[in-house]
Amino acid sequence: MSVSALDYPLGRPIISAIAVRRRRLLPPGATPFVSLHEQVSPGQAIAEARSDAGLATALAGLAGRVVDVAPGQSVTIEGAATLINGLLGVGGQVAGPLFFPQHGESLALIQIPPGSVIVYPTRAPLTLLQRAYASGAAGVIAASASALELEAFARADLTALLDGFVPLSAQPPLTVLLTEGLGNCTMSPPILRALEQRVNDVILLNGQTSPRHNIRPEALLPLPASATPTATPLPSAFTVGSLARITAGPQRGVWGRVSHIFTQARRSATDQWEPSALLRLDDGSTQIMPLALLDIIG
Amino acid sequence: MAEATHAASRPQESAARRPPTIRSLLLIDCGSVFTTAALVGLVDEQPRMLARAQRPTTSAPPIADLMIGARDAVAEIERITGRALLRDGRLITPEQADGAGVDSMTLVTSIGGPLRIFATGPGRETLSALLYRSLAGLFAQVESLPPLAEPPYDAQTLQAIAMVRALAPHVILVVGSAFGASRGAQSLDAASQTIMQWFHALSESAHTDEEPVALPTVLFTGQTEDATRLQATLRTVAPGVQVVQALSPSTLAPLNRAIGPIYESASLRPLPGYDRLRKLAATPPMATITSLGGVACFLAQHYAMNVVVADVGGSSTVLAGATAEGEFVPGSQPVMGVGPGAGQLLRTVGAENILRWLPFALDENSLREYVLQRMLRPHALPGSLIELEIEHALAREAMRMALHAPGSRLTGMRPIDVALATGGVLANTPTPAHAALIMLDALQLQGIASLAQDTARIASLLGMAGVLAPTFAGHVAEIDALALPLGPVVTTIGAAPAGAVAVYATLEYGDGRKLAIEATQGELSRLPLGQGERALFSLQPHPNVDIGLGPGQPARATEPIEGGALGLVIDARGRPLPFAAGRDERIAQAQAWRQALGIALNDGQSRTQGGVQ
Fold first, then answer.
1. Cβ <8 Å between B384 and A148
2. Is CATH 2.30.30 the classification given to domain A243-296?
3. Range(s) of the domain holding residue B236
4. What's the whole-model pTM score?
5. CATH number of the domain where residue B174 is located
6. Smallest CA–CA distance from A206 into chain B, residue
7. Per-residue b/e over B386-401, b at no fewer than 16 CB within 10 Å?
8. Cβ–Cβ below 8 Å for A159 and B63
9. Does B28 score more than 80 pLDDT?
10. So what's the ipTM on this one?
């Protein structure tokens, strides 16, 4: 039985190395500092714009080669990166160094470096988002958030945002990426590990999300040009041995390994007949889950 | 099988590729979330559904090729039946002596969304009823083209532009004055001005990261003089204004015929893999609503009854009605469903209208979270009975919105004699009672009707098949789409005093047994009458209560009626459904309705902020 998990545009939420080409949008009236074919590093300033609000500098966010320069508009860079696709995001493209708040530190008191991208491996409370914004952070990568709090912060109806009715200009200046989506989930260990290895590195973050087109928010962790990119999209069909995460119901967020795929539909928790797999969970127990409720994560 | 639309777009190719006698058909329905394939063929010389399979639709990365999802679904049918249908990606046709292949294939689709039409012009309001009738049966979303201020735009205007950009209109339809050129010239110029402003706004990117949208086709329906005037005004921005005969009660077809082909070119053709999938089919694709309309028309004419077929999907909701005379009476909400369309539904009806259907307490935030989860994971299903109840509450409201959609005349189609539940949400319920209760709640049937469930989930595929092989498809519709009769339903209108008997009902079974019950006002009741079992019934309503024959008028069947999965249901809750005022009372009410139909209640725990479990 061939059924695919289709929630991520490249097949998985994390891919260790891919070749990327991204257009870095410049602030209005910005002067580019780079020229065609120039090699850039992630923390390198590629443009600057002066306005009443002060000086705005755009960082490359990627390591690679400049392949297009549109003065006053954009600089396009080609390079390699580790890709993390979140499930839901808000805000546009930003670049900044990864910052991990000290464990146990009060969110009301933490010092957040301006321009940084904060990593928060559990549910991000509204206080964190507000403090990040007030401190001039560029973005937040969190595991999850409450829909209510995210809407309060974004001052937008998230359903309208997902339908494309909220233009980027009306979204908050702080970009947010939720790796696991809404609710109260913790970050998947592979994603957290990838982020932990890159503390203080400048990364490129984009919160744009459009489920109808399977556009998901992304964090690109730049890699040196010597990195060997993986061919994408990765296979998304369920196979025995796939590492999978439950996406709905009381066990949402729980992981396991697919140990059998049934050839006939099985009755689900809702008493419906669905193509299903037997999932072996971390604690050794097994669970029959409809394939429609599983994400392949490895 | 009857056809549902005015559109007479049955090209010669279908005749050319149609084998003389159809023995087997492969039917494919590309929905926005799932692709369904069904094989129909002869069993003991009778056309029947042989197998059906469903796979996720593959229209966006990581698998941006419609053919792959369709091929997966067909491969599953090959696995189930052991019959080869494709060879090297090509359909084996006609049916071979060894049983491989099929005689033909048809394609039904709702993917790509509806054709988005923005209407403007002096006749838009006055001719709106004719406009909707003309578009009936097409998968189209009609919006008003709002006026636009001159740049620089304020925040409100930017928001309006963002919304129109997000909707990406395919057609701007200018409806000319109902009274001819001289009466509408000024407002026609105003419409031209608005169109030019919109073309300017849409062709400029409001944000540097936004791609410019494809500019819509401009279509004009009205008088010739007005058309000339409009073409002259718009010649610089839209040189190819299409002109269609003015709308009138006797000229509804020209606009329908002009819009129909744009649906395929604007909505379907840009989809990855569409052209290859299209080449497999013997006829042009048909929108799901049109196909369902064909089935409704066939059943209505076959049984000489008024029929409604209901299908709630992830992105859209369709109610295809047909009168006994074969008139197609559609009602649809092309952008409201229980998946990606759930956000639009929630914004339109509000949380309270959805929460009122639940048999447990749930706060608004948890509902929002569930809706967002469904939007974020279009292929997911409810993961618990509580999530299933929320899904069904969304389905009720989506159907209610379709029933009352602009231009829908379904509310006026009385009585509804047969209501058929089809599609993933309504036909794949844990028990038949779930489907019956959703249909009763959402359609608010009146009088005496029969409910059926298309457990084979094939109805949406058969309308298109009916174009190719009417008798063949009609037989499958009658036998397989109406596979599970849920039973007759008697619904009361008006109200007896609270707690009083609304209807005395008596059943006389074939073996001489008699059963009498008193259906209390405000309650649902079931009388045992199994599938295939027959009985004579008589009903004596309270003087204030109408069962379709007038207040207090009794009914006695002259012919025995046949039962169904639920027996005979008496819905004495009243119309419109009276919801209790308080939250706890409303929950108790929803629980009582479920218990009356034998639906097991979930754990009943209140869900508060923090997520639906």
1. no
2. yes
3. 115-270
4. 0.93
5. 3.40.50.2300
6. B209
7. bbbbbbbbbbbbbbbb
8. no
9. yes
10. 0.95
